[in-house]
Design a protein that fits this description.
Elements: H1 2-28, H2 35-43, H3 46-65, E1 67-73, H4 81-90, E2 93-99, E3 102-107, H5 110-115, E4 122-127, E5 130-136, H6 137-160
Antiparallel strand pairs: 1-5, 2-3, 3-4, 4-5
Length: about 160
């Protein structure tokens, strides 16, 4: 069910973007038609129908390629908690839930949540030899890169403290 909801959200976003582009075209090149007449005229053509088929296909595939898991070795969810929190904070995420070795983060601002189509949940869980991040690809990739840098810099912190 979650897959279908994610696909429908993305389809709505694509349709809103299309209507916004048609509106911008009407604003820059005034024509004696309304926005909905222009949308209806374009969608009644073969190109318009093909575009809608592509929108539906893209929305149907969206959940397959837009979510990812990333493993980070040598990271402990308890010992490196400050580093995990800092990596999340850098990209605008805050802790909303903590349970049995799983930390759940959400985006802090409404604009960021809208940008992620309210799929802004990033989970950090303990796995063998490290942690695993799961969530929207663009957020997880950035956070994982930042967290790996923090983990790599941990060795310098240990040297300075001795």
């Amino acid at each position: 069910m979650k897959y279908i909801v994610r696909s429908l959200k993305y389809l709505v976003v694509l349709c809103v973007l299309y209507v916004a582009m048609v509106w911008l075209k009407l604003v820059t090149e005034p024509m004696p038609v309304t926005l909905w007449e222009a949308v209806e005229a374009y969608l009644s053509t073969d190109r318009g129908r093909l575009m809608m088929v592509c929108f539906v296909a893209l929305a149907a595939l969206y959940p397959l390629f837009s979510f990812m898991r990333s493993r980070i070795a040598d990271c402990d969810i308890v010992a490196d908690r400050v580093r995990i929190d800092n990596a999340m904070y850098v990209y605008g995420f805050k802790l909303v839930e903590e349970r049995d070795g799983v930390l759940v983060y959400r985006a802090t601002g409404i604009l960021q949540r809208l940008w992620f189509v309210f799929e802004d949940r990033v989970e950090v869980r303990t796995v063998d030899g490290g942690v695993e991040l799961y969530g929207v690809r663009r957020a997880v990739a950035r956070i994982a890169f930042q967290l790996k840098a923090y983990i790599a810099n941990r060795r310098f912190e240990d040297v300075e403290n001795k």
